[in-house]
TrEMBL record:
It comes from the Eukaryota. GO terms for biological process: 5-phosphoribose 1-diphosphate biosynthetic process; purine nucleotide biosynthetic process. The keyword Ubl conjugation does not apply. Residues 41-155 form the Ribose-phosphate pyrophosphokinase N-terminal domain. Residues 248-291 form the Phosphoribosyltransferase domain. The lineage of its organism: Eukaryota, Viridiplantae, Chlorophyta, core chlorophytes, Chlorophyceae. Signal peptide: none annotated. Its EC number is 2.7.6.1. This is ribose-phosphate diphosphokinase. Pfam families: Pribosyltran (PF00156), Pribosyltran_N (PF13793).
Length: 354
């Protein structure tokens, strides 16, 4: 395969009716100067590091606001928005993290309050939509909590500028966009462009193959890799009695640096099974990318680095790329091989210009 080079902007634009699923992230460079806006960004305690990085990537268009997060003696939140009068007629955003059900109420309280402070517009940035994996009812009695959370967010009060803009990265199921009501404007962004930038920097980029752990991931992401011409491998899950095992559906991983792509990881069992399968089929290295590294119960510790000499996969991952959408995970895995953080700061800074 020829060396992978970054396509020109014109070559990456799909023709009418072709690659209709490709929607590029907001590009701040394409926004005219007269339309750019300054924004006051508030943030939850867990997202402070990411908020500071957003400011650094905003070319001076974003400044941080401050909220005092306290609790009364009975445990309920004691909240205060600093300098509330001076944010009137300004564009305001909130960077949230619903990583734990216990923090949702206090953050929803702030999210509902900010648009009512006479702000010009309000944007909620929720990089990870946590209930996205529970998006449908398969048995009578199942509760689709993805719909519940979407309903909560759909009732954010209007600001002076109208509906709230809601920025989410790689929501688990694309049909969840229809769960939101007309009083919010969802903007669905992706972490995959960050991966593409990183892959172009690899010394063995001409030997990279993209792998998908199931057909759902292939349908979701393969259009974004089309312009770069990476070969693909698709895995599938099949039943073997009471167990589900991963098998190769199509593609040739032998001798390749195979990068598994998915939207999120929790326990990591599927990714590890895929790695083992690809290694057994002769992959030279196996890496992985997920936008959201959830990793409950420190399950990230299952992922070991590939310390081989290049003659074959040595029981680990060459790289494990993830974004900083889950702040607690970032603190756990930073500077630990094979993990590498691809920050959402620049894409979020651009999205705040919408």
């Amino acid at each position: 395969m020829a060396e992978v080079t970054q396509p020109s902007r014109s070559s990456s634009v799909p023709h009418a009716g072709e690659n209709f699923r490709i929607v590029s992230n907001v590009d701040a460079l394409t926004i005219p100067a007269r339309m750019k806006k300054d924004c006051v960004l508030f943030f939850s305690p867990e997202t402070e590091d990411l908020a500071k990085e957003i400011v650094k990537n905003s070319n001076g268009n974003v400044i941080l606001g401050k909220i005092k997060w306290g609790k009364f003696s009975d445990g309920f939140p004691d909240l205060f928005v600093d300098d509330a009068i001076n944010i009137r007629n300004k564009h305001v955003a909130f960077l949230g993290s619903f990583h734990n059900p216990s923090v949702i109420f206090e953050q929803i309280s702030v999210i509902y309050a900010l648009p009512r402070l006479f702000v010009s517009s309000f944007t909620l940035v929720l990089p990870f939509f946590p209930t996205g994996t529970m998006e449908r009812v398969e048995n009578e009695g199942d509760v689709a909590t993805a719909h519940t959370l979407a309903r909560l967010l759909s009732h954010i009060p209007l600001s002076r500028g109208g509906p709230t803009s809601l920025v989410i990265f790689d929501i688990h199921a694309l049909q969840e966009r229809f769960y939101f009501g007309d009083s919010v404007l969802p903007l669905f962004e992706s972490g995959v462009p960050l991966l593409l930038e990183r892959l172009r920097m690899l010394p063995d980029r001409s030997n990279v193959t993209i792998a998908y752990p199931d057909e759902g991931a292939w349908k979701r992401f393969h259009y974004q890799f089309k312009a770069d011409g990476f070969p693909e491998v698709v895995c599938t899950k099949v039943r073997d009695g009471s167990k589900r095992i991963v098998q190769l559906k199509e593609g040739k991983p032998e001798g390749r640096h195979v990068v598994i792509v998915d939207d999120l990881v929790q326990s990591g069992g599927t990714l590890i099974e895929c790695r083992n399968l690809l290694a057994s089929l002769g992959a030279r290295h196996v890496s992985a990318f997920v936008t959201h590294g959830v990793f409950p119960n420190n399950s990230w510790s299952k992922f070991k680095p590939d310390l081989g000499d290049g003659s074959g996969v040595a029981d680990g991952f060459k790289y494990f790329w993830l974004t900083d959408s889950c702040s607690n995970t970032v603190r756990d895995v930073r500077d630990r091989a094979p993990f590498e953080i691809l920050s959402l700061a620049a894409p979020i800074a651009s999205a705040l210009q919408i």
